[in-house]
Structure formats: structure tokens, C-alpha cells
Amino acid sequence: MRRGLALLSLGLALAAGPVSGQSQPPAAAPSALLTLDDQRLFAESRFGKTLLARQEVEKQALAAENRQIEAGLETEERDLTGRRAVLPKEQFQPLAEAFNAKVEGIRKAQDVKSRDLTRRFEEERRRFFETASPVLGQILVERGALAIIDKRAVFLGFENLDITDAAIARVDAVLGDGPPATAAPQPVPRQAAPAQPASPAPASP
């Protein structure tokens, strides 16, 4: 009985051996599938690094602009609050409404800038993969494979199925830093401060 269990254990060990102890598929059996980490391909390629750095610069510039605008609005709000105590309600109310409208207009304009930044980055990221696609196709043909699949979709596989490093090197050699940046939209001008209503002229005697 013990010998039978020992043979069974040996059989299981031999069956599991090629998966757990072998990192390369048999040389005579080329893989029909290759795997790729597309996030690494983008983030670690020169093209992708250029886009990411450009996006970060634009994000920081927009954040600085928002802080500057916010500081100016806070100053204006404090001034308006101080005038509230000395102006009649009928004179103060139009000023308060104009200030609120100005704040809302600026907020919408800055939101548009933020969404436009995100949109342009996604378009450039999509352009990267469109441009890299022929390069990946060459690797596919050279390896004699049928398809490249997302590495994250693979539960178990041989190490040399992953072509990410090779793809990064090939994309860098072919695409470099990528095409020049597309022109960013011009900043939306800040709205002028609302004019203070003129005090009513005294009645003629």
C-alpha cells in the first residue's frame, strides 16, 4: 500500500514538473500566443514618458492658475464683505449677485480646461498605441505567433511568452519620443470684475 502511494506521489510530481520547474516552453513548440503588459509598454517607453511628463507639466500649471484665481477671488470677497456694512441693500445686492456669477463662470471655465487636458492626454495615449501597433505586429510575425493578449488575463504561463521588454525596446527604436506635442488651447481670459453701480445723482432743487 505504501509503495502504491509512493508511486502515485512520484507520478504527480512528474506531471507537475514542467509547470513549476520550467520557465521556458519546449523549443520545438513555438507558442501561438504572446503576452504584453500594455501599461508598462506605455509608461516605460520614451514616447509614453514624454506624454506623461507633458501631462504633469500641464496639470501643475493648471493647478497653479487655479490657486492664483482662488486667491484673487478671496481678496475680492473680503472687500465685498466689508462693503456690505456700509452700502444700502439695494446697492449691495447687485454687487453680490455679480460676484457670484463671476465665480460660477470662472469655475466652469476652469472645469473645461481640466476636462480638455484629460481628453487630449487620452487622445495622445490612443495615438501611441495606434502608432505602436505595426511594431507589435512585426514582433508577432517574427515570433511565429497568432495573437498578443493582455498579460493580466493569463493565469499561468511560461516566462518567455511576455514580450513587454522587447516591445519597449523596439518601440523606442522606431518611435523615439514621438511626434511633437499638439498645441494646447489658449487660456480662457478671466472675467472682468463687475462695475460698481453708480450712486444715484442728487435731485435738482
Which structural traits does this protein have?
single chain, 205 residues, 2 strands, two-stranded parallel ribbon, disordered C terminus, rod-shaped, mainly alpha, Protein Binding, DinI Protein, Chain A, 4% strand
Short description:
The chain has 205 residues and is mostly helical. It is built from 5 helices and 2 strands, in the order H-E-H-H-H-E-H.
Largest sheet: 2 strands, parallel
- Helix fraction bin: 55-70%
How many separate structural domains? Answer: 1
Which fold name corresponds to the CATH topology?
Protein Binding, DinI Protein, Chain A
SSE succession: HEHHHEH
Q: What is the number of beta strands?
A: 2
Percent of residues in beta strands? under 5%
Low-confidence stretches: 1-29, 184-205
Average pLDDT figure:
77
- Taken from the alpha-carbon principal axes, the silhouette is rod-shaped
The computed structural class is: mainly alpha
CATH homologous superfamily annotation: Skp domain
Distinct helical segment count: 5
Q: What is Rg?
A: 32 Å
Distance between the termini: 126 Å
| Spatial ordering of strands, largest sheet | 1-2
Topology of this structure?
Layout: H1 2-21, E1 33-36, H2 38-44, H3 46-84, H4 89-143, E2 147-150, H5 164-175
Parallel strand pairs: 1-2
What does this 3D model show about the protein?
This protein is mostly helical. It has one domain: 2-Layer Sandwich (Protein Binding, DinI Protein, Chain A). Helices cover 65% and strands 4% of the residues. It has helices spanning 2-21, 38-44, 46-84, 89-143, 164-175, and strands at 33-36, 147-150. A two-stranded parallel sheet has the order 1-2. The longest helix has 55 residues, at 89-143. It starts with a helix and ends in a 30-residue tail after the last helix.
